[in-house]
Specification:
Strand order of the largest sheet of chain A: 2-1-3-4-5-11
Protein name (chains A, B): Transcriptional regulator, LacI family
Strand content of chain A: 15-25%
Keywords (chains A, B): DNA-binding, Repressor, Transcription, Transcription regulation
CATH architecture of the largest domain in chain A: 3-Layer(aba) Sandwich
Organism (chains A, B): Paenibacillus algorifonticola
Largest sheet of chain A: 6 strands, parallel
Structural class of chain A: alpha/beta
Low-confidence stretches of chain A: 49-56
Shape of chain A: elongated
Distance between the termini of chain A: 57 Å
Pfam family, one (chains A, B): LacI
CATH topology of the largest domain in chain A: Rossmann fold
Order of helices and strands of chain A: HHHHEHEHEEEHEHEHEHEEHEE
CATH class of the largest domain in chain A: Alpha Beta
InterPro entries (chains A, B): HTH_LacI, LacI/GalR-like_sensor, Lambda_DNA-bd_dom_sf, Peripla_BP_I
Oligomer: homodimer
Largest interface: A-B, 41 and 41 residues
Chain lengths: 322, 322
């Protein structure tokens, strides 16, 4: 690890000058300051306490990139992320990327310019070429191929759990329904767990997927209901998918749970006022949010993390649809 | 309005020096830079183009303070606010104040230190002593006594509309139910409009309110249902209040809309999957968000606004509860 001396040598200045730059105290010529700051960056000179404070002073801001804050799952996540950041005096910058890669790249640039200290990213775009493993970024759900730390619910176990609960509720031909992104995402494990458990239990099953995002709900559900009319259980990749299925199936006289048992994923309904209350695999949103921020701090401080993917346990929440 | 020359004179430097400070180009001694920056602040030296860019560079960040991003109304608002800010390259800093005045005061301090360019505030706390009329802050819903610009839906007309729709649906003794904050809030006009319209129409009505926040839902609704069992229409101050009422009334065998017609306020249900779909006074959330940001820009640029309160029209959205 580099010392303040290394920085002084590389910049060709005295140690006292480096210290003045770090503390922003006393007169330093702009050209000298620039040389020192470049040396600090080049050596990735990291804290003793003074340097840490300096670094902190540069940015106490964390960017949260998510497809849309308007989605109840993401707004719950953002709520706890902001709460956890606030404990350490960090501020949250919010970015609805809306799936726009250029907006996400812009925030990565801000990170490289030290305008934000770190990024929490929920992205389904393939921006990984612009992401290196040593920058403070923690992903949620999305698992990058490179060494980006990822916090996620245990999607695989969630899929297994959903299959078991559908069978327990009486389903004999359950289907997994969802959409599939072009790049690898942790959410794909929901399907994998579902399939694996069905095979283990010897249950006949269906997988119905279309490319993400699904542009035409009518076409999606019409085809599903037409081609798989014998399905009597549905595990939907999200609660919203589950709710849409129930509404479309209802139009054709299919009753839930009498004719088809339905289980969603997320647990977006946080009060019991609107029906149906979905049976669902509940993500531990608060724990995911807080763990994400604590891991991000470690990365900001330059520490190596033990794991690349942190999977938190899910639970089944019984609603009115199984 | 001050010129670059005024700044140079006050700082005791050449105009070229001021320009170099503004453009962050060329060598300027830290002490000189400080003098120039102080002079700029003291004179409130505002753009020509160079100065504007300089000012922008200081902060392209707007803070959004709201009680909780987890609430669907606020997350929809935040979605459009971020979208509008993004058009001009501004970033959104998000703060869940959770009704904590100290957190709100902290953001006001950030504004005074130029760490944020402006604040959009949804606050129900009485922080107005710390708010002066010349700082770039725009309030939503909450109407400060001082000259803080406020963007709100037309709560008074919303209250009148709700009363008329309840009567039209057959209610003969409608009630307004809500909670009441200790400081003045625009939302109080929902009640006022309701009362005024009832008087105009000669309709018997009930007002049922408790101090905000309502800590004990059970006590709140038990008392309401016990003391006002003859009520056959409810206008609730928010959709959530309406949903809670429906759930509690249902436990006592009261059917909605057969026995009691119910209208909420906000329009938080943005898809038709969960029931009951509330009949509601829909706030023009997107328009409110975009207007708020455009007004904030004018304040950031030091312009005087024509109005203090901007009220946007609401509409009645028919659901399943009237």
């Amino acid at each position: 690890m580099s010392s303040i001396k290394d920085v002084a040598i590389l910049a060709g200045v005295a140690v006292g000058t480096v210290s003045r730059v770090i503390n922003k105290s006393g007169a330093v010529k702009p050209a000298t300051r620039r040389k020192v700051e470049e040396a600090i960056q080049e050596l990735n000179y990291v804290p003793n306490e003074i340097a840490r404070n300096f670094k902190m002073r540069k940015s106490k801001m964390v960017a949260l990139m998510l497809p849309s804050i308007w989605h109840p799952f993401f707004s719950e996540l953002a709520y706890y992320i902001e709460d956890e950041l606030d404990l350490e005096g960090y501020k949250l910058m919010l970015c609805n990327s809306g799936g726009k890669p250029e907006k996400e790249l812009y925030y990565l640039e801000m990170l490289q310019q030290n305008k934000v200290a770190g990024i929490v990213g929920i992205t389904y775009n393939d921006i990984e070429n612009n992401v290196s493993n040593d920058i403070p970024i923690v992903s949620i759900d999305r698992h990058f191929n490179k060494k980006i730390t990822c916090v996620t619910s245990d999607n695989y176990e969630g899929g297994r759990l959903a299959l078991r609960e559908l069978v327990k509720a009486g389903a004999r031909k359950p289907a997994f329904i969802g959409s599939v992104t072009s790049v690898y995402s942790e959410t794909m494990n929901r399907r994998e767990g579902f399939i694996q458990e069905a095979k283990t239990m010897g249950v006949e099953y269906v997988v119905y997927e279309k490319p993400d995002p699904v542009e035409d709900d009518d076409a999606y559900f019409d085809e599903l209901l037409k081609e798989h009319h014998d399905v009597d259980g549905v595990f939907a990749i999200t609660d919203i998918f589950a709710a849409k299925y129930i509404e479309r199936a209802g139009r054709q006289g299919i009753r839930v749970p009498e004719d088809v048992k339905v289980i969603g994923y997320d647990g977006i309904q946080d009060h019991p006022y609107f029906h149906p209350l979905l049976s669902t695999i509940r993500q531990p949103v608060e724990e995911m949010a807080r763990m994400t921020i604590r891991l991000l701090y470690e990365k900001i401080e330059g520490k190596d993390l033990e794991q690349q993917v942190y999977r938190l346990p899910v639970t089944f929440r019984q609603g009115e649809t199984t």
